[in-house]
Design brief:
This protein has 135 residues and is of the alpha+beta class. 21% of the residues lie in helices and 27% in strands. The protein folds into two domains: 35 residues, no CATH class; 83 residues, no CATH class. The radius of gyration is 16 Å and the shape is globular.
């Protein structure tokens, strides 16, 4: 919803009903017109998933980190060896983030994928992420 204002084309990826619900959500949860989109009544869950990116000569192991606010992603990090980390935030980088819901990702059934909030926050800050405000 926040990215809609930044788009120059009239192309809309979400149905009108979803856009209306999003508008209602942000109106209800904003403070002075500013909201990080988090709802404290929803469960906050954190995950880390290793991945291997193979090039012609070397296989590099990296990590995909995610923070889910309820069933939807709030923050995401990609940590690649020998590359700058990629930090993404919902409402700012939506087009580059995972579009699947937590249920669709099946992360909750993946062994050792779920991590503590403290682990995520430590890595987030270590890689230059701005402090996150839970409202």
């Amino acid at each position: 919803m926040k990215n809609k204002q930044q788009q120059t084309s009239n192309e809309q990826r979400a149905p009108d009903s979803i856009m209306k619900n999003a508008q209602n959500y942000f109106n209800l949860n904003s403070t002075n017109g500013v909201s990080n989109g988090l709802n404290p009544s929803r469960e906050q869950r954190f995950f880390r998933v290793p991945f291997v990116k193979s090039s012609s000569l070397v296989s590099d192991k990296g990590y995909w980190w995610s923070h889910f606010d309820g069933n939807y992603i709030a923050r995401q990090m990609e940590i690649h060896p020998n590359k700058a980390p990629i930090l993404l935030v919902a409402g700012v980088n939506d087009m580059s983030m995972c579009e699947l819901s937590l249920d669709e990702t099946r992360l909750t059934s993946k062994r050792n994928a779920e991590i503590l909030q403290e682990e995520f926050e430590l890595e987030w800050k270590k890689n230059g992420g701005k402090p996150w405000t839970y409202k």
